[in-house]
Amino acid sequence: MDTTKLRELQAPLKAQYREDPNSAVVTLKADGELDGTGVACRVQTATALAEAGLHPATGGDGTQLCSGDMLLEALVACAGVTLRAVATSLGLEVSGRVHAEGDLDFRGTLGVAKDAPVGFRDIRLTFDLASSASADELATLIKLTERYCVVLQTLRSAPPTAVEMRVSA
Length: 169
Hints:
By secondary structure, the protein is an alpha+beta fold. The protein contains 5 helices and 5 strands; from the N terminus they run αβββαβαβαα. Helices cover 40% and strands 21% of the residues. A hairpin with a 5-residue loop joins β1 and β2 (40-44). It starts with a helix and ends in a 12-residue tail after the last helix.
């Protein structure tokens, strides 16, 4: 996609959102079905059914997806799409790869040590890029990618998250 096509696609949306800010608020959803026999949850994605289970460091056998990996995959996907959109908008030719890695102390998840955090304690996002763009252009690209990547900003700002339970008979 080129800069002109992207602008054509986004211009009416931007105009609508400026005129009616409430129309820009969209509720995204995900649903999972609990596995009745094992320790797993089946999540329907846009293109396939994904089955998440225990990471091998918590007793899993490695045949199911790890939700921690899925979080990092969501970060890579969002950062990659955002970077491509920003590069297109800026008219920059960029290719390459996006990597994310995070450190987990599984003592927290398994309740082995109360002082061990549950969740990632460090996440690193890396862009390995090939481009003829200048250093300043690439710095702007990364700065704007960081600013507009939904998953990255969500991880950094930790929005309020409500948990509720509904029980059926």
